[in-house]
Amino acid sequence: MSKLEKWAHVAEIAGALAVVISLLYVGLQVRENTSAQLSQTEMNLFSLGYDLDAWYRDPAFVAIVAKANRDFESLSEVERMQLEKFVLGTLNLWAYAWKSHDRGQIDEEEWAAWDRWFAGEMQNGSWSNIYRRYSYGYHKDFRLHIENAAAGR
Question: In this structure, is the dihedral angle defined by the CA atoms of residues 121, 140, 138 and 126, taken in order, positive or negative?
Fold first, then answer.
């Protein structure tokens, strides 16, 4: 084996090592990116949830919710529109959590907690009433999920 052939083998080994090291580095970067993405999705959900909670700090809105829970049809047009905006915003948050879970961006425990809360709200007649009016705006698989939740399944 000539000196040149020996150096060629050394170069091949060095090249293979460089590829292995590069792949390990890429794997580490992907893991770190995934972790950051999970954290960001979680923060987004909490932030959006906090924004929705602000509605319940308004006594006038709480009175509308109580009135709707007693008799949805008794709401004025303005009250109905306000409640619809709230419920649709909340359904959009549920859709975001559902899609994030579907994509593996939130873990099972986190998803289960959000899903239970939303499903509980769907047991409320006014929520179901509003959802039925606007269900066409949601993905068919998510609609099926909502309908199962409304039915208590």
Answer: negative
